[in-house]
């Protein structure tokens, strides 16, 4: 078969013209493939190569165009095959929508995953077409919402006005907040619960006078503080309530209890009591050691009750931190028993304040709210 005797050019191929083989440039029919220095493209719908716009000359890829969007699938080389990454995306940049690093880290929306899975944007979990959780990374802060079958059941967010203070909320089946834990506007930790009317019914926070002293209270149906405990400026634990009680099982009726209410007064006091005996009109009573240790001796008051109808009366003639001395009135020389009771202010509690500012018991974090909405 004849072959043209003419001179061929670089990259020419032999083509049959019906009579002889001639040298000529490769003629690719329209609607098939076109070639460039780094790519082969099929009718604008698919491209294979390396060095496309936005890629370096070493990045191999497959680009597929559909409905006006171009998807890229490829390997991004990084100086060595061992450092190459794999990506899938709609961008001509290797950032891609989906990126797998050679070391195994996976990125969605980022080409620099710093963990086994790194997502740039929100993450949503779906169950039977319904959202069950959503994690967000907007406003420079991570947040999350979790859903039950019918409503939101918990949320992770931040304190309104401060993105660096966490706020965790638990909801009921109606989507009403029932409990929360957060870092309050004062900077300390807060635990709050709410009743069915949405008013606060229990709060653990700090005392209004110090961020570092605990304060917990319970509230009535209207949210008013009715009982609580806190640590005062002297590092003393303080309890307050309308009633202070002790309760024990009824020793004879299994379905009953016995409750006693505490005796109250305008001081933090301690007492001791007992029975002594007058001999020849005189007696000396020693306090129990524990009473001497807790009571301020300068505040002691003593009550005496003679246990004899012949008594001329009794008087305390001497008081010390260890005890007291008793004599019968009118130089009596009686011999009989008597009851005694001593009260005194507890050491360290001499400055008990009866009248106080109501603002001392204000909840410093009562108005704090969570940021963001669902």
Summarize the structure in short.
The chain is an all-beta fold and 374 residues long. The protein has one helix spanning 289-294, and strands spanning 13-16, 21-24, 33-35, 39-42, 46-50, 60-66, 69-78, 80-89, 98-100, 106-108, 117-119, 123-127, 130-136, 143-147, 152-159, 162-171, 177-183, 189-194, 200-206, 214-219, 225-231, 237-240, 245-249, 257-261, 269-278, 282-286, 301-306, 314-319, 323-328, 336-345.
Please report the number of helical segments.
Answer: 1
Mean of residue pLDDT values: 86
Gyration radius, in Å: 44 Å
Number of beta-strand segments: 30
- The strands making up the biggest β-sheet line up spatially as 12-13-14-15-16-17-18-19-20-21-22
Judging from the principal axes of the Cα atoms, what is the shape?
Answer: rod-shaped
The fraction of residues in strands falls at over 45%
Helix content: under 10%
**Uncertain residue segments:** 52-57
Major beta sheet summary:
11 strands, antiparallel
Structural class, by secondary structure, is mainly beta
How far apart are the first and last residues' alpha carbons, in Å? 80 Å
